[in-house]
Amino acid sequence: MKNRINRQHLDDEICKKYRSKDWDGCEAVEYFSRYQEYDPENKYANKPDIDLFRGLQDIHYGHNDAYSLVIPAYVKEEVVKRLEEGLVTEFPVPTKINNPEKYKEAFKGKVKEILENIKANKYPFQKGKNK
Predict the structure, then answer these.
(1) DSSP per-residue string spanning 12-79
(2) Residue 15, Cα to own-chain centre: how many angstroms?
(3) Could you give the CA distance from residue 53 to residue 97 in angstroms, rounded to a whole number?
(4) Would 24 disulfide with which of 20, 59, 123, 125, CB 3.0-4.6 Å?
């Protein structure tokens, strides 16, 4: 089940406090929450227990954990800081991971991609974004 935040339930007064000239925090949280799942294991529950699917699952976990770094994404500077720390910090690999190197590569790759996109203003919640 996808982790979706319904913006209608977010108090507009709260969201106003997280808007700046180049960042809409509430929209950022909504955007990134579309990509994170509470239980990514279910996606692979009925797949054959072969290397291909175990590898895909490790990549999926890595990407999912990268998105967990940016939620909540209300304040741009905090998100950038967390992503930069995620690139250089050694962290424990979850025990359910089959190939730790594949997981780390997927995690760091996704963190780098998100960080580069933020710095290039490529996301729809960034005002003045490049088209």
Answers:
(1) HHHHHHTB-SS-BHHHHHHHHHTT-BS-GGGGGTTS-SSHHHHHHHHHHHHHHHHHHHHSS--SHHHH
(2) 20
(3) 12
(4) 125
Q: Is the dihedral of CA 100, 114, 2, 77 positive or negative?
A: positive
Q: What phi, psi does 2 have (nearest 5°)?
A: -75, 145
And the tokens for 105?
């590569």
Going from N- to C-terminal start, the domains of the chain cover 7-119
Look-up: residue for tokens 């490529």? 122
- CA 102 – CA 36 distance, rounded (Å): 19
Could you tell me which of 9, 23, 6 has the C-alpha nearest to residue 78?
23
Please report the sign of the dihedral spanned by the C-alpha atoms of residue 41, residue 99, residue 85, residue 32.
Answer: negative
Whole-angstrom distance between the N-terminal and C-terminal Cα of the chain? 31
Predicted confidence (pLDDT) per residue in 57-74, tens digit:
999 999 999 998 888 878
User: What digits encode the pLDDT tens for the residues 2-56?
Assistant: 444 555 555 677 888 888 888 999 899 989 998 888 777 778 778 888 888 889 9
